[in-house]
Amino acid sequence: MPEAVLHEHHHPPALAHHFENLEEQHTAATLGMWVFLVTEVLFFGGLFMAYTLYRHWYPAAFMASSHELDITLGATNTAVLIVSSLTMALAVHAAQEGERGKIMFFLVVTMILGLAFLGIKSVEYMDKFEHHHVPGASFHFDDPALQQPAQIFFSLYFVMTGLHALHMIVGLGLMTWMFIWTKNGTITKDYSSPIEISGLYWHFVDIVWIFLFPLLYLLGRHI
Amino acid sequence: MSSSTELKLPPNNYLHDGYGWKSWLLTRDHKRIALLYLAAITFFFIIGGAFAVGIRLDLATPAGDMVTDDTYNKLFTMHGVMMVFFFLIPAVPATLGNFLLPLMIGAKDLAFPKINLASWYIYMIGSLFTLYAIIAGGLDTGWTFYTPFSTAASTSAVLPAGLGIFINGFSSILTGLNFIVTIHRMRAPGMTWFRLPLFIWAHYATSIIMILGTPVVAVTLVMVVAERAFHFGIFDPAVGGDPVLFQHLFWFYSHPAVYIMVLPSMGIISELIAAFCRKQIFGYTFVAFSSLGIAVLGFLVWGHHMFVAGESVYAALVFSLISFFVAIPSAVKVFNWTATMYKGSVEWATPMLYAIGFIGLFTIGGLTGLFLASIGIDVHVTDTYFVVAHFHYVMVGGTIMAYLGGLHYWWPKISGRMYPERLAKIAAVIVFVGFNLTFFPQFILGYLGMPRRYHAYPPEFQLLNVLSSAGASILAIGYLLPMFYFAWSLRYGPIAGSNPWGAVGLEWNTTSPPPTLNFEETPVVTWDAYEYPTPVEGHVA
Amino acid sequence: MSATHIVPKKIYFAVFAALMVFTAITVAVSFVDLGPLNTVVALGIAITKATLVVLYFMHVKYSPRLTKLVVLSSLFWLVILLVMTMGDYVTRDWRTYGMNQPHSAPYGIERTIAETVNL
Questions:
Q1: Number of domains chain A contains
Q2: Does C112 touch chain B (CB under 8 A)?
Q3: pTM higher than 0.95
Q4: Is residue A32 part of a domain?
Q5: Partner-chain contact A46 B113, CB within 8 Å
Q6: What pLDDT was estimated at residue A8?
Q7: For residue A188, which phi and psi values (nearest 5 degrees)?
Q8: How many CB atoms lie within 10 A of CB C118?
Q9: Which of A207, A209, A213, A219 best probes binding to C when mutated, by most C CB atoms within 10 angstroms?
Q10: Among residues 294-333 of chain B, which lie with CB inside 8 Å of chain A?
Q11: Does residue A4 carry a pLDDT above 70?
Q12: The domain spanning residue A47 has which CATH number?
């Protein structure tokens, strides 16, 4: 027994064999997630580039198309995501304090909000199908002069929000994983970095939406 | 070369740490993952090479008698896709980089061993999609996937190939991520940034490109797939989209990707030159920063691929000017390598032959890049064999020469055994001769106006094309020889000992092959990189 | 863990309140026609919101210099992508030395739109 305790002391169970100590492991994990988020910025950057060009070329079509999106659902979803970012931040806080019950509570709330976002999003997608706003052969736009560039707007709308939704789904997977790790005791006050870096990811997905919302929904509101 | 008195390989080396297939396919040891990558990229090199054989055979006659024009399109496309995405990009970083990076900085492993293994699996899954594309009739868009041909016109397997390359991109991103975190966080005590081997600096710069560039091409391929599969309109001129936007996004990654391919090779050359000249690299700091300089400048020049694609003349001027600037850090490296050789005690071992070959061929490849960066000349030689020759001098004369040199240099560390030196020297000479015979005539062909990607050509070009095809067969022998003698040496090669070259560097301070955790105890570094004893006065090789 | 700085909860709540207020403002402003200023305001508010999330929710304010550098480098490269690509598109209409063809919409899109209108 004393030997096991000694071992525990020198080599915490969460410490991987190739790190010197938990702090080195923690900073490596955090840096790794940040580097990954750099990748994500450039991933969405390609889409923002395409958006910038076509909005520059077809301002009228982009405003008219934007006007077709549902601002109420869009604004609600923005609020939902901001609340989920808060609950995620609180989950990270709880993890740093080592309060297991609170971590699990806030993770579940975050997941419910994430699911709510995806639910509202799918209602919007259904609406687009009904109004023939899905790009392709059946695409129809009320103003025939804008029919073609409006299709570019909706193509970008679906690719951008679709990839964002995909990131939300990955985030929900991460939350589930973290919930299990918290429940089975892997997450401790000394080993909270998995929750922290999952939080970084979730906040990043929120930031993407912070830009998608005005660019897609608000642009043509005043016409 | 110091002859070793050890007769056996060290019993606790990483190759003896488990023998079953599970011990390889589930390993988290960066050295074993490097070997998994080595096996995989060798396989794809052979496939890509087979397509090249088809191309050169077809071009032996002006009429292109061997295959139809459609098949020819598929041959050069699949050659490019295989070689660029599945061989050149992972060639050095995922094999030698993976193997050596932790060893050189005194770490037990990369920062994220599971992610490292995952990156190999992602690479293999991506390759399966691409192999499926070959079996399902091939791909004929060229490796660049230019729209609208790839989205609207091509009837070949664009979707599986594009998906395969999309997936493969994540393996590259994860490797780069792992390297960056490892270099920042896992250096041994005393291993400061300016004591790092230049190989590490080169890999750091490469990793920056991998994480910043790859996601852009990934999302671009998503858009291409959406356009082809679901008839979205993003690059489609029929709805007012711009195919040139695809080229912007594609080359934002794919031009820096050229530096993903060649920067790690430059890192190898720095190691080889120092080791075989027994000298500190001349201007170490300049060489280190020139890697970062190439990585940053490399992101500012992509527009030089689009001079004739409808790009604005003003943008073209800026891209052209910055392209010339890339010559500065490249020349810093070449001058510093040659300055290191000056009055060094040069040992003409096989890796050194490859290193010297690299310097010459890379210089030709780089200087012809300047021809192409100047708009006036580029308009004349765009899409001719001049371009083909230029990038093969960089990719094959540069990257593959350095890759082979590095493989010979570190083979004793990887396998614990020496390769047959005399045979290896012969192979190095064959590679050099075959390479030049293959690609130098293509400069002339291009200058005379033979377009690339055509399967037939006017009869007056036949002589140069036959020379090129003959050179390709010599080159093939040069590439096959090492495959055989490396395999031979695994069993019959003499035991190398921990430091057969008498080189400095942490990787030579452990046994060959190293133990699973690399070092018996964490090394403490108190010396600079390449601290070779000062040569005796008057002793000049 | 010494590397971790625990952010007080009240900062989280304050940032959350600011984010909600900014969302309300940006929605309200979007109904008013400000001309090109609509875009400036919307993007300005989005950048402010994103900065708040990065600094406080993502702890960058309390993070080592390296993290800040990583964040800034991602923005720097995003700017390279946007500026150098748009640099091509906005200069296509400039003087083209006798070949003065409009490039603002490529491949005859104006004509196609005109045809659609005539139908």
A1: 1
A2: yes
A3: no
A4: no
A5: no
A6: 43
A7: -130, 175
A8: 7
A9: A207
A10: none
A11: no
A12: 1.20.120.80
Whether C12 sits inside 8 A of A210 (CB atoms) is no
The A residues from 104 to 143 touching C (CB cutoff 8 Å) are none
Give the residue ranges of chain B where pLDDT is below 50. Answer: 1-6, 538-541
Q: CA torsion, points B380, B386, B391, B396, in degrees to nearest 10? A: 180
> Looking at the domain assignment, is residue A193 inside a domain?
yes
Determine whether the interchain pair C77/B313 forms a contact, defined as Cβ–Cβ distance below 8 Å: no
Question: Is residue A19 one of the residues assigned to a domain?
Answer: no
pLDDT, tens digit (0-9, with 9 covering 90-100), for B214-236: 999 999 999 999 999 998 999 99
C58-95 per-position pLDDT tens digit: 999 999 999 999 999 999 999 999 999 999 999 987 76
Which residue did the predictor score with more confidence, C97 or B178? B178
Test A35 with B211 for CB contact under 8 angstroms.
Answer: yes
Please compute the mean of the pLDDT values over residues C38-52 and round it to a whole number.
Answer: 95
Identity of the residue numbered B411 = W
What proportion of chain B, given as a percentage, has pLDDT over 70? 97
Element at C75 (helix H, strand E): helix C65-90
- Which chain B residues touch A152 with a CB distance below 8 Å? 233-234, 239-241
Q: A52: domain range?
A: 37-218
The residue of chain C with its CA nearest to that of B306 is C88
Which residues sit opposite B515 in a β-bridge? B13
Tokens of B86: 């599945």
Report yes or no: B180 and B292 within 8 Å, Cβ to Cβ. no
* DSSP assignment string, B35-89: HHHHHHHHHHHHHHHHHHHHHHHHTTSTT--SS-HHHHHHHHHHHHHIIIIIIIH
B185 → closest Cβ in A27, A45, A53:
A27
Q: What pLDDT shows up at residue C4?
A: 62
What pLDDT shows up at residue C99?
A: 54
Q: What are the tokens at A20?
A: 């010197």
Whether B236 and B224 have beta carbons less than 8 Å apart is answered as no
Question: Which domains are delineated in chain B?
Answer: 30-509 (1.20.210.10)
Phi, psi (5° rounding) for residue B384? -110, 180
Which residue of chain A has the CA closest to C48? A210
Answer whether B86's CB lies under 8 Å from B44's CB. yes
pLDDT for res A3: 40
Question: Which residues on adjacent β-strands are paired with residue B495?
Answer: B417
- Which tens digit of pLDDT belongs to each residue from A107-151? 999 999 999 999 999 999 999 999 889 998 889 888 888 989 999
User: In the prediction, which pLDDT does B379 show?
Assistant: 92
Which residue, among B248, B297, B305, B317, would best test binding to C if mutated, counting the most C CBs under 10 Å from its CB?
A: B248
A221 and C31 in contact (C-beta within 8 Å)? yes
